[in-house]
Fold Adenylyl-sulfate kinase.
Amino acid sequence: MLARPPPRPCSGAGDRWRRQDAPSAMPRVPAGGLGRGAAGVFKLVAARPAATTVVAAAAGERRTAGPAAAVDGAQLANGSAVAGISKLVTSTVGKSTNILWHDCPIGQNERQKLLNQKGCVVWITGLSGSGKSTLACALSRELHSRGHLTYVLDGDNLRHGLNRDLSFKAEDRAENIRRVGEVAKLFADAGLICIASLISPYRSERGACRNLLPSSSFIEVFLNAPLEVCESRDPKGLYKLARAGKIKGFTGIDDPYEPPSDCELYSAKLGTALHLNQWLIKLCHIWKQMVS
């Protein structure tokens, strides 16, 4: 019988992360079980989809307390305690099941210190042709010249990619705003000044985006240009198509626009370079006050 060769020492970069007492092959994870296997290897099983508790296991941090709660170091899952495991529960959010929030050691504060700025969202709303994209780009350029990192989320640009699967029906418009709000939240968390430029006609959906961030991190700007002014500009020719019945559900023509009731800044005119510069000064002042 051939002698078994001695174990090879861990020398490669990839081996340094392997536990010394871990077997060479991971054991199979039985369905419906969650516990500590041989040599301290964890076996992971998803919690019931009905569970809404989100707990971070690796760092030992508890996020929320939901229907499934830790009792005496054991986690209640499927109605019974699981030996050897605590603070590890997956959750259900919307249609996503068995998901777990994972925290990273580098957070918003660290990113903001690196960029020397505070992340926030400037949400510009108004009718088509009111000057939203013009103001967004001008604000981005002005802040960039002052040494701040910005990013513009333009409604039409996003429909070329992220939201290309959405129409202009009411339910799709709601999903369009929801997605942009979530992306803007991520950019603000990254430490960027995110400038979102969208018609976003419904007050409730803008409010939902506002509620995603702290009050000091969301600046709503309303370009209250009258319909007749926007229609006379008609930079994309959309009002003409809507009046001719070739576009249905066009905001301001056959779909309502709900003005903000609690925006941080609004104006009825943005037609000249002077007005634009005045707005930039006001916006920069408000932004500096809110994020300082």
Remarks:
- The two ends are 76 Å apart (CA to CA).
